[in-house]
Write a structure and sequence with these properties.
alpha/beta, 4-stranded antiparallel β-sheet, 6-stranded mixed β-sheet, 13 strands, Alpha-Beta Plaits, Rossmann fold, 30% strand, 320 residues
């Protein structure tokens, strides 16, 4: 497959003023260089869905901004669709879409439909095809009824769905998403995740996503790059990342009334207990013994067997 993003030894440093005194700071600001991204390299194929993960301050948003041309890197090389992003050529900007969950893209005083009209004129889109696409995408996201409502009167969930339509209205080849579901309710998050998968398959758009919500990653992305303290510490498929941690299983037992002394069962660790359930962490090799022990000694109503949650895996990577 064709590489449409190539990043080689990307680095970005920010200057932070140490002397913050109002008077002396003017004459002796004493700047210190702080690296946000250190020598990060990766490639992205056309049609991929990639998640950039990391804790706050890890460098993932800085990487997104460098890829979209919002900031200049301090060092390294970036090629996106054959362009250098920070040259900000119009031919490049027409082929990417950007949605930042903490930034408003739609005009606050206009309706979404009016903002889409402005986008249509800016990108030179054909009216009939554009109107058809707006109707199709609005139906997919269940926001047809608010297209003519001023953006300032919309709920956060409605606004984010319409921001997403605005980001892909011009049919970009690459869609950059920085925390697209931040602050949304469960129903809105589910809609957006399904929508992103739908447009990836339907329009073959490449998705680059950052999120603190691991469900976003599991539902939308096939590949993960983990960045910590500005450095890349993992690059691989979501499936492989989970399989690498497959030595532990989470087993949840349901009872009418949870029995006592479950913590004494060998080769396992109780991680949660309630009135009608108990959840154990156990090595995969010991799981049959645990299930056999509990089901033979206690009246079990049901059992759930789960892999280690993705957020726990990512947290463990950070610690390492």
């Amino acid at each position: 497959m064709k590489n449409i993003i190539v990043v080689k030894n990307l680095g970005k440093d920010f200057k932070i003023r140490q002397n913050k005194n109002i008077l002396t700071g003017l004459w002796n600001p004493d700047y210190r260089s702080m690296p946000a991204v250190k020598e990060v390299s990766f490639t992205v194929h056309s049609g991929e869905s990639l998640a950039l993960l990391g804790p706050n301050g890890a460098g993932k948003t800085t990487t997104i901004k460098a890829l979209t041309g919002l900031i200049y890197p301090t060092r390294g090389e970036i090629s996106v669709l054959g362009f250098t992003p920070f040259d900000r050529q119009s031919e490049y900007l027409r082929q990417i879409g950007l949605l930042m969950g903490n930034k408003a893209g739609l005009n606050w005083d206009l309706t979404a439909r009016q903002s889409f009209y402005l986008s249509r004129e800016i990108y030179g889109l054909e009216k009939e095809a554009c109107d058809k696409k707006v109707a199709e995408l609005a139906e997919l996201l269940a926001v047809t009824h608010v297209l003519d409502v001023p953006v300032r009167k919309l709920s956060l969930g409605e606004r984010m769905k319409l921001e997403l339509i605005s980001a892909i209205l011009h049919s970009p080849q690459i869609l950059f998403l920085d925390e697209p579901t931040i602050g949304l309710d469960i129903v809105s998050k589910k809609k957006i995740r399904h929508f992103l998968r739908e447009i990836q398959e339907r329009y073959k758009v490449t998705i680059i996503l950052t999120s603190h919500d691991m469900t976003d990653v599991e539902k939308v992305c096939d590949r993960v790059i983990v960045i910590n303290k500005g450095e890349k510490i993992y690059d691989g498929t979501v499936e492989k990342l989970v399989d690498d941690y497959n030595e532990d299983k989470i087993v949840k037992f349901y009872f009418e009334l949870t029995p006592e002394n479950l913590e004494k069962i060998p080769h396992s660790e109780i991680i949660e207990i309630s009135e009608d359930s108990a959840t154990f962490k156990v090595k995969t090799e010991h799981m049959p013994k645990l299930i056999s022990h509990i089901t033979s000694d206690y009246p079990v109503l049901d059992i759930d067997i789960l892999a280690t949650p993705l957020e726990d895996i990512i947290e463990d990577l950070f610690k390492k």
